[in-house]
Design brief:
By secondary structure, this protein is mainly alpha-helical.
């Protein structure tokens, strides 16, 4: 009886952190599904229903105490700002439907970025963002600043969609480099640079942009999965060692009994 109790206690102690982690994952999965439902409704122009779902998200967020499970105040800030923006604009009849959907999309991407360990949804926008960037680059090569400005605006509209999520998933130094590149392109001084200098700046920006997406492409195994593998192996080793020790002790006592006889 004591042996079974000992094994049970050891197994519980080793699996308890995983149980807690699993509960946290389930809670964020629920919030992720709510944000996805809000976006689905917004895309179908069911904006009033989308607003109700976004309000429900707030209720569940506090109910599940999700705030305490965020990694930093920066994450809380991003979630709060994008949620408030989506809630405010989703039923704003004066705004174009596309803009309202964009705000809900921005919020949806943030929640996914917090929940996903790898391959977040925002990284799937790489093709469209880089395509807009290459149009900018082509315009500079052709020395067409008017085409550059229109391409740059298109690029900004798409990048701003993923920017809050990038802040969550990407190392600060990488994010800051892209932000600095954008700031330089927005400045009037950029248009006064020589075409060669402009192109040089864009080449640097291309590398920094690509680094953002490359940083999240590594499809590594879920850390919790590795924990389970290690923990299970440890439990098996521990159990076998204990059983082996009990067997050895039993054999030893048995031999002593034979010697007495």
């Amino acid at each position: 009886m004591k042996r079974k109790t000992f094994i049970f206690i050891m197994i519980f102690m080793m699996l308890f952190p995983y149980v807690v982690s699993s509960q946290t994952t389930d809670d964020w999965k629920k919030l992720d599904q709510i944000s996805d439902e809000a976006l689905r409704l917004a895309k179908n122009k069911r904006f009033e229903e989308a607003k109700q779902v976004l309000t429900h998200f707030s209720e569940e967020f506090f109910k599940l105490n999700a705030r305490e499970r965020l990694k930093s105040m920066d994450e809380l800030y991003v979630v709060t700002i994008t949620h408030e923006s989506a809630l405010k604009t989703v039923t704003a009849a004066t705004l174009p439907a596309e803009e309202r959907v964009e705000d809900v999309t921005r919020f949806r991407l943030v929640i996914d970025a917090i929940r996903s360990d790898h391959q977040p949804l925002w990284s799937e926008m790489e093709h469209s963002i880089m395509a807009a960037f290459y149009r900018m680059k082509k315009a500079v090569e052709n020395r067409n600043m008017q085409a550059f400005q229109s391409s740059f605006q298109l690029f900004l509209n798409q990048y701003e969609m993923i920017e809050p999520s990038v802040k969550i998933d990407v190392a600060p130094e990488r994010f800051k480099r892209v932000a600095a590149n954008i700031e330089l392109l927005e400045a009037p001084a950029f248009s006064r640079l020589s075409p060669d200098s402009q192109l040089k700046q864009l080449l640097q920006m291309e590398q920094d942009l690509q680094a953002l997406f490359d940083g999240v492409k590594k499809d590594e195994a879920d850390p919790s999965l590795w924990w389970v593998i290690i923990s299970t192996g440890s439990i098996i080793i521990l159990t076998l060692s204990y059983v082996g020790w009990r067997k050895y002790r039993g054999e030893k006592e048995k031999n002593k009994l034979h010697e007495k006889e």
